[in-house]
Amino acid sequence: MLVSVLNGLAIGSLLFILAVGLSLVFGMMDVLNLAHGALFLGGAYLGAAFAGSWGGFLAALALAAVGGLAAGALLSLMTEPLRKRSHLDQALLTLGVAFVVAELLIIAFGDDPLSVAAPPALDGSVSILGATYPTYRLVLIGVGAVLALAVYLVVERTRVGALVRATVADREMVAALGVDNRMVQATVFAVGSLLAATAGVLGGPIYGARPGLDATVLILALVVVVIGGLGSVRGALVGALIIGQVDTLGRWLLPEFASFILFAALALVLVLRPHGLFGSPASAGAR
């Protein structure tokens, strides 16, 4: 039971790193980015390519960060003409990008699943209350906690975060003050994409790298965002932790019904809180 709960925390931490960027881009910038999972997959393949040493792991993280920033900036430019159109148009464009990226990754790395080793010194296990648990997953829980605090402080307690929130609330007024709205949107998009790509590297030792992983994690991230509420960092964290526990415990207790349990939890939250746990009608109907 303890191991299952810890696994839920580890998966929840990873889902937060992935989903918080999607939540900010969709909830604050009102752009539906279905290429988010493809960025995660790209990071996972980078982790597989450079695995085996601390230098390789750090190099994979650095390349994923740079690649994520560049991809986010490019996606922001591509979706800019669609900002005032329906989410369906954005979804079709970014889904097409996701398919292209996934195919390019298959061409580059093949279509066989690849395993990703944890960095040296983190590939062992520790004893917790008599149970043996992987060291890497414990570190991942800590990384998720630190990142959650950092993102919350930046969004809620800094001038940069205030500028982002102001841009969402009244873009015309912010533009009248001399701020380039497109730059703010591109920055949020780039940072969200950076988080998705680095989450792929961090998640490599857990999920590996394989075709189809992008769709799996995208669905989980969308569930987290809907449960937590659009544009809410706190909601992304709570939603990720809930889904991490539900998914892990469901696979442990009732593996054949794990997917049903996951979406039953989503349905229950939507019935009780249609805008998510920490969302608001304003964020849900930003368009």
From TrEMBL:
<keyword id="KW-1003">Cell membrane</keyword>
<keyword id="KW-0029">Amino-acid transport</keyword>
<feature type="transmembrane region" description="Helical">
    <location>
        <begin position="252"/>
        <end position="272"/>
    </location>
</feature>
<keyword id="KW-0812">Transmembrane</keyword>
<comment type="similarity">
    <text>Belongs to the binding-protein-dependent transport system permease family. LivHM subfamily.</text>
</comment>
<keyword id="KW-0813">Transport</keyword>
<feature type="transmembrane region" description="Helical">
    <location>
        <begin position="135"/>
        <end position="155"/>
    </location>
</feature>
<feature type="transmembrane region" description="Helical">
    <location>
        <begin position="57"/>
        <end position="79"/>
    </location>
</feature>
<feature type="transmembrane region" description="Helical">
    <location>
        <begin position="186"/>
        <end position="207"/>
    </location>
</feature>
<keyword id="KW-0472">Membrane</keyword>
<dbReference type="InterPro" id="IPR001851">
    <property type="entry name" value="ABC_transp_permease"/>
</dbReference>
<protein>
    <submittedName>
        <fullName>Branched-chain amino acid ABC transporter permease</fullName>
    </submittedName>
</protein>
<feature type="transmembrane region" description="Helical">
    <location>
        <begin position="219"/>
        <end position="243"/>
    </location>
</feature>
<feature type="transmembrane region" description="Helical">
    <location>
        <begin position="34"/>
        <end position="51"/>
    </location>
</feature>
<dbReference type="InterPro" id="IPR052157">
    <property type="entry name" value="BCAA_transport_permease"/>
</dbReference>
<dbReference type="Pfam" id="PF02653">
    <property type="entry name" value="BPD_transp_2"/>
</dbReference>
<feature type="transmembrane region" description="Helical">
    <location>
        <begin position="6"/>
        <end position="27"/>
    </location>
</feature>
<feature type="transmembrane region" description="Helical">
    <location>
        <begin position="91"/>
        <end position="110"/>
    </location>
</feature>
<keyword id="KW-1133">Transmembrane helix</keyword>
